[in-house]
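Obj: model holo form, ligand = magnesium ion.
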Amino acid sequence: MATAKTTSGPGGSIAGAARDAILAGVVALGIFGPLVGLKTEQNMQNELVITTRWGLVAIIVGIVIAGRFLLTTTIWPAMTRNKLRDKPPATAGEVAFRARLARWFAPTGLVFLFIYPALMVYFLGFQGSLKWVDNFGIQILIYVMLGWGLNIVVGLAGLLDLGYVAFYAVGAYSYALLATHFGLSFWLLLPMAGILAAMWGIMLGFPVLRLRGDYLAIVTLAFGEIIRLVLINFRELTNGSAGISSIPKITFFGIYSFDVSAPNNFAKVWGLAMSSAYYKIFLYYLILLLALLTAFVTLRLRKLPVGRAWEALREDEIACRSLGINTTNTKLTAFALGAMFGGFAGSFFAARQGFVSPESFTFMESAVIVAIVVLGGMGSMIGVALAAVAMIGGTELLRELDFLKAVFGEGFDPDQFRMLIFGLAMVLVMIWKPRGFVSAREPTVFLTERKSISSSLVKEGHG
Amino acid sequence: MSSVLSSEQTPRPWTADPVLTVEHVQMRFGGLVAVNDLSFEVGRGDITALIGPNGAGKTTVFNCITGFYKPTQGMLLLKHAAGDTFLLERMPDFRISAKAKVARTFQNIRLFSGMTLLENLLVAQHNRLMLASGMTILGVLGMPSYKRAEKESIETAKFWLDKTGLTARADDPAGDLPYGAQRRLEIARAMCTGPELLCLDEPAAGLNPRESAELNTLLLDIRQMGKTSILLIEHDMSVVMEISDHVVVLEYGVKISDGTPSEVRNDPRVIAAYLGVDDEEVEKVEEQLDELTEGATP
Ligand SMILES: Nc1ncnc2c1ncn2[C@@H]1O[C@H](COP(=O)(O)OP(=O)(O)OP(=O)(O)O)[C@@H](O)[C@H]1O
Ligand SMILES: [Mg+2]
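Output (holo structure tokens):
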């Protein structure tokens, strides 16, 4: 019965599928004919002439027809069949395996993170490890930290903040300005940058948090842009788009310096060969610890009344108010705390780059951080970390697409397709896992047994 | 000044020491007057029922009491057993719950569906726990004083889970509960705030007869404990007649009757407005209508 249906279904409608595909081809011809087929160019006499590219149009229309035919005849039926087939219930072994995986994933990951630089140095040498520790390790960890910081606001409190990069910028410029003008040390400026960013968070929060949903998102987005424009135009202080350069390096708690000329240079003191790898490895561990601090504080807070109030706020704000929770203050704490971690990450970023300019704080950055939180599964620490690895590591890896030159010829620049591939991958992930990598919610407290909560019950917040 | 209204035939014990006094409250939405010149008292320790046909303005009265709406006119005075008084119309909604100790449930249930039952009940004890956690700072450091406070809160939650028969499901998400259990959980959550006045918006709606009977027991139980007075909106007359000490009837935002259940049941205006006119009367009106239409179309 079932087999008869599945074979006769697509088989009987081949003609229909063909008709459908040709219709799609006609639509494609209508769209791409003028758009792609006709191209205006300036000739030698500076006149506009129309050149035609009918061959290209034919290729596109062909692809559309073939693709549509394939979709209707094979891919869609297969997908519905998959959906119809009942998933066999997980066996006891599978359940136990999943539980073990969940239990061991975080500790194993942590150990790996701590030995990662050593592994890289061991296999690739100090110079060879540079790229992997700096471009991958540090870069990813900065975004893990930013993702975890924003996770407090978006994932726990359910407030869509599209201007998170503003706080990152506040932290970065705080360090850059105070270190270059007053020569203050990173270890003093790190908490200061966090506090300043938190203050900005509260300042933004007061007028904005009475807005909800889309309105909040738009106003925070605007705030991010305003901060960037102020950084560009307040030349006297920020040096405009030229940015601030020669920002001092971080010292090893004031004991060793990583400046080549300094007498207490780390390599000199220990009689090692000069290399920038020591500094990078030091930075790696520093950002790792900062990220873990973010994770530790967040995990702690989730189990405290504030954390529960954040999640309750995401679930139902009106019910929160009926229970006597001051929702404005609760939102403000989430905003300020998220901003503070953004500020920490910002000051680290400034110290690591040695240079900051408004270019680094565009809306694109905010979008990437929000994407990390959404892709990871809102509220889940491990999910957000995985998403940061996938997004940042993925885009970095896509830089290594040189092999595509062999396929498409020398003129092909794979870097240009990086974002395209990346966007496609994200769309696919969101189809496959609409609530992110780790979507189940872990309860913060239990009487007898801790049970994960299915994402279908957990709300995403509404502003 | 006595606020005794119309009928003097029976004593009105709820006027002696009311927990809530509603005086001349009006709520206007643009051109629509949802509640008009409403005055009544909620006696301390009583179960007071607020009834009326659909759209009479009952939920609007609740929203005024709990601060979700600001009444356009009138006064809402809440008096604690300890003597503290609060003018509810001047307080923001969350302070009415936190300070004046008025808890409520919603006509369309509002639970934290993605959180467990226990978590729902702990969120309800937020203010107490927030203080105990030293506004979070002591809590982050893991101080024992906070641990102790949290344990007490879990005990309170367990007590109410037990009272509502939900202990077995304490670690399940609230959204997974069947409808009747969600209603009970919402009451448990409201009780966890330690209220002086509990406002229930149609707690028996959608319950089967057995659940409805359990609800009555629960409400009588809460009254027995003596700390909390109950104001409830109800459509089910059997519930109202069975458990309430005092009934207030609204129609089109105006109070049409106020008294003991038996008084209200026999009040002709209530019978006409709320319970509807008699069948015979309906037939009479229909006959008249028929005659009229026949006369109009020869
Ligand atoms: N926020 C609002 N804005 C405009 N009109 C409102 C608002 N809230 C309530 N109303 C109107 O006030 C009137 C009373 O509504 P209310 O919800 O208080 O009735 P109710 O007695 O609770 O009815 P039900 O038994 O159906 O719950 C209705 O006409 C309603 O449309
Ligand atoms: Mg109502």
